[in-house]
């Protein structure tokens, strides 16, 4: 790495990206050109024998790659959940990737490990978690790449805690619980850690509880399992479910899990960012009863991919499930496991990026007040969208909005035309996305096909949300929804 070449070749990349962000709203949000296998036909079969200049490479990115991307950073991207990019997130990522240190053990990069401890504590306080998740309170946090990874680690910790008491053979009796709205990662994670597939319980939710779990429903399923000799292990509570943004009542669920010696994980992957605003703090009430909590700054917290905060009340449970001490790493832990953190023991992989730098730069650059204002802006946009959809009698908001996600659909015109209304909403979503002007995705709740409008793009402003509504109305007419007049 030659420092002069490094500077000279980085500048055109920054210029390229700044041009991309200037023009990103001009691209079809989801590429109309993309076809399976097409990129392969545009590129050589083998890498070049001799390196290409950076401007030639950038030209290929411009010509071949950009036109076939889905533009997640477009202000008109309302699909899935947002994946924020920001100037500070990028600056932090540049510093992290530029320094390219690997903080798997304290001695492998002391400042990176220490900074990670500081940043996860800052986030813990901002999100309003109880002190037991702070290092000073006996808990602690780590930055993973994804919630999926965090979930597998907490499941492994819960499993080992139970098996150390019951013996290894008991693994076939352990049961993991989630709701029909929980993210699929819990089922996958349970499979990975060896829970028999028949011991994964999906507890139904309903419109009556806003698609959140109730303590009674969990209690009933858990008691039935206990009565048949099974061992309740782990419950996932979600703040802001992926489909409709539902919130599970953490306190009530925590009381159930405490009674049965279960592990309670709170998944706030998306809505965790909103918890920094006092008006959303009620959602996390009861967090002192949880064993672990996770949220993704890479979703709605202006932090470029990837970054997931995981906090645990008892780090020793996590590290006893995940630690390994091969000889070739012994020399890097001379501080002793008790005095320093070796983050390799808090995650699956050994090598890991310097994510703390990225999140630290975001927090420093925007500050807590800046982040609260950012979140509130999106919530206001979503409120406007919810109000406007509700005021149009052709449409309905399917479940009350909690954060910045609005799940809506064209209403049935008559009792019993369930299939017809689903088909019409499918057609509506296809027409909306085919326009290239926005990208939205769908969900099915209570057997209803609903369109999800997930507001939260870093470049999204009110006018983009208003334009999206105009487009929805235009396409509703095209697919044959009755006019309001
Ligand atoms: N949990 C919830 C509630 C989510 O919405 C998502 C992703 O959208 C995940 C977990 C998975 O997150 P990740 O992609 O970081 O694994």
From TrEMBL:
Keywords from the named record? Decarboxylase, Lyase, Pyridoxal phosphate
Question: What Gene Ontology terms for biological process does this UniProt record contain?
Answer: amino acid metabolic process; carboxylic acid metabolic process
Q: Which residues carry this modification: N6-(pyridoxal phosphate)lysine?
A: 299
Does the record carry Endoplasmic reticulum as a key word? no
Is Lyase among this UniProt entry's keywords? yes
Cite the PANTHER family for this sequence: GROUP II PYRIDOXAL-5-PHOSPHATE DECARBOXYLASE, OS10G0400500 PROTEIN
Per the similarity annotation, which family is this?
Answer: Belongs to the group II decarboxylase family.
- Official protein name in the record: Tyrosine decarboxylase
Classification from the root reads: Eukaryota, Viridiplantae, Streptophyta, Embryophyta, Tracheophyta
């Amino acid at each position: 790495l030659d420092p002069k070449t490094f500077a000279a070749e980085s500048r055109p990349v920054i210029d390229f990206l700044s041009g991309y962000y200037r023009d990103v709203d001009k691209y079809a949000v989801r590429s109309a050109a993309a076809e399976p296998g097409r990129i392969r036909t545009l590129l050589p079969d083998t890498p070049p024998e001799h390196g290409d200049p950076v401007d030639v490479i950038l030209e290929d990115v411009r010509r071949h790659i950009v036109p076939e991307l889905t533009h997640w950073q477009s202000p008109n991207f309302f699909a899935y959940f947002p994946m924020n990019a920001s100037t500070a997130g990028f600056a932090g990522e540049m510093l992290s990737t530029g320094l390219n240190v690997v903080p798997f053990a304290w001695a492998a990069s002391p400042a990176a490990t220490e900074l990670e401890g500081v940043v996860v504590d800052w986030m813990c306080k901002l999100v309003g978690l109880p002190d037991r998740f702070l290092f000073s309170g006996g808990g602690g946090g780590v930055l993973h790449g994804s919630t999926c990874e965090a979930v597998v680690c907490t499941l492994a910790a819960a499993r080992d805690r139970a098996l150390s008491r019951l013996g290894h053979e008991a693994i076939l009796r352990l049961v993991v619980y989630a709701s029909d709205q929980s993210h699929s990662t819990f089922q996958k994670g349970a499979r990975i850690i060896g829970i028999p597939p028949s011991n994964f319980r999906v507890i139904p939710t309903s419109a009556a509880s806003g698609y959140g779990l109730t303590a009674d429903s969990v209690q009933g399923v858990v008691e039935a399992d206990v009565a048949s000799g099974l061992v309740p292990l782990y419950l996932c509570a979600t703040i802001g479910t992926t489909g409709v943004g539902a919130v599970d009542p953490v306190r009530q669920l925590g009381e159930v899990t405490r009674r049965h010696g279960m592990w309670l994980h709170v998944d706030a992957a998306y809505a965790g960012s909103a918890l920094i605003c006092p008006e959303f703090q009620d959602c996390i009430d009861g967090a002192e009863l949880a064993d672990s909590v996770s949220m993704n700054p890479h979703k709605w917290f202006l932090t470029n991919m990837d970054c997931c905060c995981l906090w645990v009340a008892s780090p020793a449970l996590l590290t006893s499930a995940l630690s390994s001490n091969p000889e070739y790493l012994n020399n890097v832990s001379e501080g002793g496991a008790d005095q320093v953190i070796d983050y390799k023991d808090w995650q699956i992989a050994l090598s890991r990026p310097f994510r703390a730098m990225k999140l630290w730069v975001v927090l420093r650059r925007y500050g807590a007040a800046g982040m609260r204002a950012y979140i509130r802006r999106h919530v206001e946009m979503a409120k406007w969208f919810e109000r406007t959809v509700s005021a149009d009698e052709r449409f309905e908001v399917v479940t009350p909005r909690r954060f910045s996600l609005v799940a809506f659909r064209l209403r049935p015109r008559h009792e019993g035309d369930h299939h017809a209304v689903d088909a019409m909403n499918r057609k509506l979503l296809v027409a909306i996305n085919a326009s290239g002007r926005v990208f939205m995705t769908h969900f099915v709740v209570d057997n209803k096909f609903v369109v999800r409008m997930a507001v939260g793009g870093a470049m999204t402003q009110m006018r983009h949300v208003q334009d999206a509504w105009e487009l929805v109305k235009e396409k509703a007419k095209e697919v044959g929804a009755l006019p309001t007049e």
